[in-house]
């Protein structure tokens, strides 16, 4: 059976990586609090890269050395699309997973969306936390407080005001959805576009759906089963 697994932040929580919308996601600039959905935007990166990169570093890069958990290892030989950017599926040995929202360990030239660019390894270990803001601006080649197209670098992460492009392997992801005999969602809140896209494909092709979550979101699908459990409990049950 060709089962496609689509994972979200709930899968990485056991590795000590907080879910995206948790309390630690918020950020204060001056006297104003910004939500993760306000911080993680192309507009914030362009207009205030100093704060954007500091938030991104604290929110994600500080977890870059965390290791995969049992669920990642179980998924290491599976057909997998993950919404997580932490790279833990790769660390667990999955050679062909799709990181549909990007990868923490990579960056690209700052480009027009859709342009063909090559990912580079982000040298996070070169960051000097004693002068964090300036060090991050230097790392991403941002002068005069604003990134320059095709000169500065941008983290390889899909932001809320951006759209899926081939950089994120969107066509391959859609094909994997259409080819699946079953789609299993693990640890996702169904609040992002890729999960809605997968559900639409499942409805169109009459693909059964399984939702693994202690408090699963209820979805509209004629053939859905709910597994009210953690991803770890689920894989233990699967054997």
Question: What does this protein look like?
Answer:
With 239 residues, the protein is of the alpha/beta class. The protein is 30% helix and 19% strand. The chain has helices at residues 9-12, 36-39, 42-47, 49-59, 70-74, 88-91, 132-139, 170-179, 193-204, 231-238; strands at 3-7, 27-29, 32-34, 79-82, 98-99, 102-109, 120-121, 153-157, 182-186, 209-212, 224-227. The two termini are 16 Å apart. The model has no long low-confidence stretch (mean pLDDT 93).
Q: Helix-strand pattern, N to C?
A: EHEEHHHHEHEEEHEHEHEEH
Shape: globular
Secondary-structure class: alpha/beta
Mean pLDDT: 93
The share of residues in helices is 25-40%
Computed CA radius of gyration, to the nearest angstrom: 18 Å
Q: What are the low-pLDDT stretches, counting only 5+ consecutive residues below 50?
A: none
Q: Which strand-content bin applies to the residues?
A: 15-25%
Major sheet strand order: 5-4-1-9-10-11
Number of strands: 11
The count of helical stretches stands at 10
| Spatial gap, N to C terminus | 16 Å
Main pleated-sheet profile:
6 strands, parallel
């Amino acid at each position: 059976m060709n089962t496609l697994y689509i994972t979200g932040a709930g899968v990485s929580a056991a590795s000590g990586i907080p879910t995206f919308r948790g309390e630690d996601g918020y950020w204060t600039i001056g006297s104003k609090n910004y939500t993760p959905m306000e911080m993680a935007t192309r507009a914030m990166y362009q207009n205030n890269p100093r704060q954007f990169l500091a938030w991104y570093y604290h929110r994600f890069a500080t977890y870059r050395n965390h290791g995969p958990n049992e669920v990642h290892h179980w998924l290491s030989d599976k057909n997998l699309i993950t919404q997580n950017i932490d790279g833990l599926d790769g660390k667990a040995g999955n050679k062909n997973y799709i990181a549909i929202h990007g990868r923490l360990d990579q960056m690209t030239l700052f480009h027009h969306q859709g342009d063909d660019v090559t990912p580079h390894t982000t040298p996070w270990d070169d960051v000097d936390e004693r002068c964090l803001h300036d060090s991050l601006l230097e790392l991403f080649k941002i002068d005069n407080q604003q990134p320059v197209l095709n000169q500065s670098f941008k983290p390889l992460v899909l932001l809320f005001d951006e759209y899926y492009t081939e950089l994120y392997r969107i066509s391959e992801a859609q094909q994997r959805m259409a080819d699946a005999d079953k789609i299993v969602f693990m640890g996702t809140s169904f609040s992002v576009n890729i999960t809605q896209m997968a559900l639409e494909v499942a409805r169109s092709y009459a693909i059964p759906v399984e939702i693994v979550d202690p408090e699963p979101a209820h979805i509209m699908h004629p053939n859905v089963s709910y597994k009210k459990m953690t991803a770890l409990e689920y894989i233990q049950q699967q054997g």
